[in-house]
Amino acid sequence: MQKIRDAVRPDYKQFVLRCKPDGDLGDFTTVSFDTLRSTLLSYLSKECLLNHEIVTVCRYFSAEQAMPPSCDRNRVRAAAQLELKRALWNGVEQLNDHLSHINPACRPYISESQVRSTLRGCRLPFSLELVEDILMVLQRNGQNEIEVRDFLAFFNMRSDQVPDIAPLNIAFELCPKLPFLHKGRLVDFTWFLDYLGLEEELKRANS
Fold first, then answer.
1. CATH says 73-174 is which class?
2. In angstroms, what CA-CA distances link 140 with 104, 108, 123, 135?
3. Domain limits of the chain?
4. Which SUPFAM superfamilies match (predicted)?
């Protein structure tokens, strides 16, 4: 993903429009495998981005099937808290303030996109891979919204600390990524763009 990120970063907005010419990016936007493949190959040569790599990416971000659960919640919490300790993070109040701002009605559940926005807006020291793992283990309701109370408790090291975890490669060891049964013919473009994280980079650069 990093070479895709580096290749499209200078021309990110145009990349999005090539995939979605109507510019319609809602909470759940999809593109076909062929569209994403041809667009990626206009930024990276076939020698640089091999076909099997494109297939792997499309399977990972498949809109045809939910990712099978493969995360242990306490291991993910331990990994998150390890990163917070390393960064000497103490932004619980900022986290609460941000949530109050985006959720003034104090709804018990908020959308995944709002949680992503909060994690990045409050500059929690997490890699994109760790953010995905955290989102995978948070409590949700029937509408797939995330429970605010569980989200806040997840990072509360004062009242509910989990045992320390040995340093590990978060991208590969924390939550083994099980392969999809389907072939990624339809790609969750919203998830793909969130994972790239370039929209947030642009916002920070322009703020």
1. mainly alpha
2. 20, 10, 23, 10
3. 2-66+179-206, 73-174
4. EF-hand (SSF47473)
Whole-prediction pTM: 0.52
Identify the H or E element spanning 127.
none
- Tens digits of residue pLDDT in 58-114: 888 888 765 555 688 888 999 998 898 888 888 788 888 889 999 999 999 999 989
> DSSP string covering 141-164, please?
-TTSPEEHHHHHHHT-TTT-PPPP
Query: How long, in residues, is the chain?
Result: 207
Q: Which residues contact 137 (CB under 8 A, 6 or more apart)?
A: 71, 72, 73, 76, 77
H/E element, 45: none
Instruction: Using the structure block, give the residue that is written with the tokens 């990416």.
Output: 57
Residue 181 in contact with residue 65, Cβ under 8 Å? yes
How distant is the alpha carbon of residue 133 from its chain centre? 8
